[in-house]
């Protein structure tokens, strides 16, 4: 991982992430760092050397809340090169969202 893995963690915990190609829901442990780096893992990482399954930035992204297809869903919409990418997540309660 790059120097992004050393930025301060501002939020962490489990989220349900909907697959971008196969549209099933998977529980993942995410770390949001102060610089906007957003890393996803199968389980809470033991150390900074653990390679993430998901690695993108939320800096400059749009956040949209909705209750479909599941309650407490939110979408992070951002650019990946020149393509708009929407990543869908959900949590167990409105407070977590």
TrEMBL record:
<dbReference type="InterPro" id="IPR039026">
    <property type="entry name" value="PH_PKB"/>
</dbReference>
<dbReference type="InterPro" id="IPR001849">
    <property type="entry name" value="PH_domain"/>
</dbReference>
<dbReference type="InterPro" id="IPR011993">
    <property type="entry name" value="PH-like_dom_sf"/>
</dbReference>
<dbReference type="InterPro" id="IPR051707">
    <property type="entry name" value="PI-Interact_SigTrans_Reg"/>
</dbReference>
<feature type="domain" description="PH">
    <location>
        <begin position="8"/>
        <end position="97"/>
    </location>
</feature>
<dbReference type="Pfam" id="PF00169">
    <property type="entry name" value="PH"/>
</dbReference>
<protein>
    <recommendedName>
        <fullName>PH domain-containing protein</fullName>
    </recommendedName>
</protein>
<dbReference type="GO" id="GO:0032869">
    <property type="term" value="P:cellular response to insulin stimulus"/>
</dbReference>
<dbReference type="GO" id="GO:0004674">
    <property type="term" value="F:protein serine/threonine kinase activity"/>
</dbReference>
């Amino acid at each position: 991982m790059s120097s992004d893995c050393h930025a301060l963690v501002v939020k962490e915990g489990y989220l349900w992430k909907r697959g971008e190609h196969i549209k099933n829901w998977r529980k993942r442990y995410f770390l949001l760092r102060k610089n906007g780096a957003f890393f996803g893992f199968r389980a809470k990482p033991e150390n900074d050397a653990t390679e993430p399954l998901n690695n993108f930035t939320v800096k400059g992204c749009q956040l949209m809340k909705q209750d479909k297809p599941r309650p407490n869903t939110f979408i992070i919409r951002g650019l990946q090169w020149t393509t708009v990418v929407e990543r869908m997540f959900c949590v167990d309660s409105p407070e977590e969202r």
